[in-house]
Sequence to fold (651 residues):
Amino acid sequence: MQPPEKTKAGLYGASNIQVLEGLEAVRKRPSMYIGDVGIRGLHHLVYEVVDNSIDEAMAGYCSRIDVVIHEDGSVEVTDDGRGIPVDMHEKLGVPALQVVMTTLHAGGKFDKDSYKVSGGLHGVGVSCVNALAIRLVAEVKRDGALWRQTYERGIPTGPLERVRDLDSSDEETGTYVRFWPDPEIFKTTEFRLETLATRLRELAYLNRGLTIAIDDKREEDEELGREEFHFEGGIREFVDFLDETRDPIHGEVIYVENEEGDVPVELAMRYNDSYQENVLTFVNNINTHEGGTHVSGFRRALTRTLKSYGEKNGHFKNLKFDLSGEDFREGLTAVLSVKVPEPQFEGQTKTKLGNSEVQGIVESAVGQALSWWLEDHPNEAKAILNKVVTSAQARAAARKARELVQRKNAFSSSGLPGKLADCSSRKPEESELYLVEGDSAGGSAKQARDRHFQAILPLRGKILNVEKARLDRVLENNEIKNIVTALGTGIATTDEDFDLENLRYHRIIIMTDADVDGAHIRTLLMTFLYRHLAPLVQQGHVYIGLPPLYKVSQGKTEEYIWTEDLMHEKVAELRESGRGKVSLQRYKGLGEMNPEQLWETTMDPATRRLQQVTIDDAAAADKIFTTLMGDAVAPRRKFIERNAKYATIDA
Ligand code: 0RA
Fold:
């Protein structure tokens, strides 16, 4: 079908006034639509485009999605679905593609049958991406032709064009969207491969059989820049992946699938010998970090079913403590995925499911399947129940340790650790806490800082690896005690102890050497913060301070440089200038800088570089930490190589 010739009136006529107003609203208040304009919001643009292709895959028409990060900073998403329709929209008198691309809330689908998301950060529509892009090119292959329309900040630069006929013998239908994020809107426009790859991998696990590939053309090493995800086993394989570096206590992943009714439920779970609970939950492919009714349903089913099985089979005979819900989740890795037709998302980050009917649906689906599984697998069931009992015993010990820390908080004179050089401000909004590797760098930082708003806590050597320890051991560690006391919030691992309101610094800045040891210490700290103070990370309070790698000087001018590439560029530039000898100093540790240099490069808000630590996705964080901590060297090297260079200007 061929759309009629578009006139200027058709493009910018009466119906389009509303369109322009809509796009303007998005540009005026981008955060209302995509959450924020930081690195997180930037990546949401890609997810928004990909979501439409995923919908097409869930409808059964798309088997492959390709994402490309181009050298010019744009991102391209291609799918082999049916293609966004290009025929005339009856009411609006413009092609459907243009409606989808320029009208708010006109999602990819016109029908309401699919499990499209309402609310939350996704599902705002590709038109938002368009509005926040300096340029966007949409191409569609369908109805025997290749079609194209281009936009600038959401406004079509011309009508939809029929570019050419398709080669009928081998060209398939599909949609292609490439966009350039608007630097007037976003604080940073640099996409992170690792962040995108993590989400795409997750989507591939959640949609078994679908192939999703990513290719980062900025990466010189082609191999390093490319990844392809395809999992026939779906979320069962997701559990294997999450537990790659852990030891399961039973071989088989427990798998539940219930497609009956309006709310399909899918669950994969397995216990390992660690002490962490690692339960990832999704509603319509969206990670529900804050939980909700589906999570309550799952937890209730787990507790109820294991408890009654354990009682029936005499596992609790010698237990001197009460069992709590947590005991049934220690060492549990699980992925729960439900599809809800009209989800209500609540909570601070709109990632908590509110629909009350979902709790019972999940509870009965999981309860029934799990009790059958236990009856069928008595040996595995025994191992799981032993683990539950051990956990209950350890929890009693952990409670004692926790009370010790709390008492110390309440009764010591200032309540603050002796090693802390506190700031004078009592306003958390302006206060910063630097966690500094080593006493000597700590000393320099104390001299360098602006004592009004910057506090310094030197950390000696390596902190405990919390991935491998139970909470009681974690809280016995001195460095950890100091950090927790300085922060003032308590530990978040058990909800009742934690209060974000008491946080004494709104920026927590990890400052370690730019070497392998530094990376290790940074990882240990991040692991601890992620595991036991997750809300701080979630709320964007945690940063990594990035010291420069080089100082390049010529005569009296000197410049600090943060990346290898820029160093080469700068050196070449200065040499060409012919103004004399160029000298290069490489910094290996914070200790090599005097306090002035440390202030200038790493602590002065005007010139320093901070990288905000985001927990967009618990799976990513957990995987990163276990990858960095684990024994497998290859994935760790890949991760470090990919991420070493991302230095973003202070958010
Ligand atoms: C509406 C109707 C149809 C397909 C799509 C939207 C569609 C949207 C997107 C967005 C990205 N990729 C997409 N692929 C398809 C189906 C119309 C039909 O052929 O019946």
Q: What stands out?
A: Residues 52-53, 56, 79, 81-85, 108-110, 175 surround 0RA (CB under 6 Å). Residues 1-10, 107-114, 117-121, 645-651 have pLDDT under 50 and may be disordered. The chain has three domains: 14-230, 235-394, 428-547+610-646. The domain at 14-230 is CATH 3.30.565.10 (Heat Shock Protein 90).
